[in-house]
Amino acid sequence: MSKEQILIVEDEDAIREMVVMTLEMAGFDSLQAADVSEAHQQVVDHRPALILLDWMLPGDKSGIDFCRMLKSDALLAEIPVIMLTAKSEEDSKVHGLDAGADDYMTKPFSTRELISRIKAVLRRSNALSGDKPINIGKLTLDAKSHRFMVGDDIIDMGPTEYRLLAFFMSHPERAYTRAQLLDQVWGGNVYIEDRTIDVHVKRLRTLLRPHDCDTLIQTVRGTGYRFSSRIEKG
After folding, report:
1. 35 CB contacts (<8 Å, ≥6 apart)?
2. What distance in Å separates the CA atoms of residue 107 and residue 54, rounded to the nearest whole number?
3. What pLDDT score does 234 carry?
4. Using one digit for the tens of pLDDT, what is the confidence trace for 89-111?
5. Taking a C-beta distance cutoff of 8 angstroms, is the pair 117, 105 a contact?
6. H or E element: which one contains 105?
7. Nearest in space to 174 (alpha carbons), one of 124, 136, 213, 145
């Protein structure tokens, strides 16, 4: 069985070498890039299982720019991204996650935590990339094409809404707290407000309303949200 390849996009040689050694000891293979141009070539040539992406990179494109580019490409959007950055402010974290990053780590970080985060993101990514479409009500999730559809109509949405709705459809008929959704969709130790979920749920409902699918996302009083085709009475 071949090892999973992790692409490290980092312009500081010492950090890149440390991460390479850490990944090798954990049983992963490494690819390396020092800027966005090299990173894009590595992605096209090797299609890594995951990308560790530094926020600040040399040249005219940042890590955030590269993340947005990946997540807007239907052929590459499924590759999970963990942002690595010295930026620790909450708004920076939200900015990175809204660009499509699957998790966020602030430098300096422990190697044990890095491997733990990589494994967690890979588990979530694999769980949402099954071969069979999921159908609930009129809504279909086709993970292979990274699309949501109602009949032949494709519902266009951003990467954060995609991950949240994909999780909902993969785990229907169960109520989740906002904290649980943040942990499952954004990853553990991502310190952003629970109410961030409310913002993305509102966006999802707005996107689904023209297709009469917004009622699939149900508010559970005192808990959070549930995805269900069953209509609650009373």
Report:
1. 9, 11, 57, 58, 59, 61
2. 10
3. 43
4. 555 666 667 778 888 888 888 99
5. yes
6. strand 103-106
7. 136
